[in-house]
Amino acid sequence: MSGVRILVGTRKGAFILTSDGTRERWDVSGPHFGGWEIYHLKGSPADPNRLYVSQSTGWFGQQIQRSSDGGRTWEPVGNEFKYDGVPGTHQWYDGTPHPWEFKRVWHLEPSLTDPDTIYAGVEDAALFRSTDAGTTWQELPGLRGHGSGPGWAPGAGGLCLHTILLDPSDPGRMYIAISAAGAFRSDDGGATWRPINRGLRSEHIPDPTAEVGHCVHRIAMHRSRPNVLFMQKHWDVMRSDDGGESWSEVSGNLPTDFGFPIDVHANEPETIYVVPIKSDSEHYPPDGKLRVYRSRTGGHEWEALTKGLPQRDCYVNVLRDAMAVDALDPCGVYFGTTGGQVYGSANAGDSWAPIVRDLPAVMSVEVQTTP
Amino acid sequence: MQPTTAVRIVLPLHLRTLARVDDEVTVDVQGDVTQRSVLDALEASYPMLRGTIRDHVTQQRRPFLRFFACAEDLSHEQPDAPLPDAVVAGAEPFLVIGALAGG
Lengths: 371, 103
Description:
The complex is a heterodimer of chains A (371) and B (103).
Chain A: E1 3-10, E2 13-20, E3 27-32, E4 37-43, E5 51-57, E6 61-67, E7 75-76, E8 89-91, E9 97-99, E10 104-110, E11 118-123, E12 126-130, E13 138-139, E14 160-166, E15 174-179, E16 182-186, E17 194-195, E18 216-221, E19 229-233, E20 237-240, E21 248-249, E22 262-264, E23 272-274, E24 292-295, E25 303-305, E26 323-325, E27 333-336, E28 342-345, E29 353-356, E30 362-370
Antiparallel strand pairs in A: 1-2, 1-30, 2-3, 4-5, 5-6, 6-7, 8-9, 10-11, 11-12, 12-13, 14-15, 15-16, 16-17, 18-19, 19-20, 20-21, 22-23, 23-24, 24-25, 26-27, 27-28, 28-29
Chain B: E1 4-10, H1 13-19, E2 25-30, H2 35-45, E3 65-69, E4 72-73, H3 85-88, E5 94-98
Parallel strand pairs in B: 1-5
Antiparallel strand pairs in B: 1-2, 3-4, 3-5
């Protein structure tokens, strides 16, 4: 029988939740790396037992660890993220130039085909790649160097490259997103990049339709239709049908279009999920009700999914990397909160139940569907 | 051939976990016993600690760490200044301390 393995990164360690295909009973393993901030951990699509984790603290900096047995054992690998050449400057909060400084890895994206190749999105925003299973890392400098880099400014959470999407139909095409620079696309395996933000409108920047400067929170795609992208922006839920060449708003009837994660149903490429958050000043759900919203029409028309979720006195947040789906039928949907709950739905969101309730604040959720 | 000195080092919990050691460690330091030579020897024996105490590029002490020995804070001493005789003699350890900050 198939199984599901959920990889949870929290403020104080990593946890691994496993279940069989019924998704009714869960085993909880962890904390792994107790006391460390785990921004992200993810498994290789080419070898599901190969996992990579980003652990960091303000005291001891960045570590990357690798597992070759599905998270039972780990070994530290390379943690030197050195910008290519003279790093130069980006824009600071007050508009002055600020030197590029590595702070941490926000997101790890293993290659779709090679367990030893992995991409890392870091703060201050840059994209790194390892082709030796994390032992050494090299920046892909074409991103910061494409021209607009000196004008990028951090969002409230830092100048972070938090999203990396690899196109399963085209090995050369990849997408990344940076807060607060926007979305970018490469068609040559990461060598060169260009911004893909046409159609975005952000009232909090001097030119609301600028080519860069947008606070993109998350992008998602369905592997069967890699030209269709969905975006949760700082405000606005957006959609592109042309690989990011242009975007249109699909917020529709959402109670608020601010939020962080967005994801796509594993078997229905027009079914998408967001978690509306009241505002960028408050960072909790409207009316104290934790509601996932689902659109079965690729946006515009949304329904609230509330069964099993707290509908009073709930003031948690759901961070951008903290939602994921499994590949079973019906599709499982999972998300973690800053209150330490991981909720799961084994019926595409119709009903939910907490898998764990009392973890540290959840920073990331990834799901592996195991044979 | 420069003399070798065995130096005792006490690491904070998270670095002991990372290095997979339970207690203080002892490293062999070639030549003068200084912060730099001690940390070089430590990182040679435990490569996973590279970047956790000193920045990879600048080799500067990470801001939230301190170096103590013989009841003194040596954090602001020059990296090539000699460490106290008691550390060289093995009577006292060199302590890497995580600052008491954060939650």
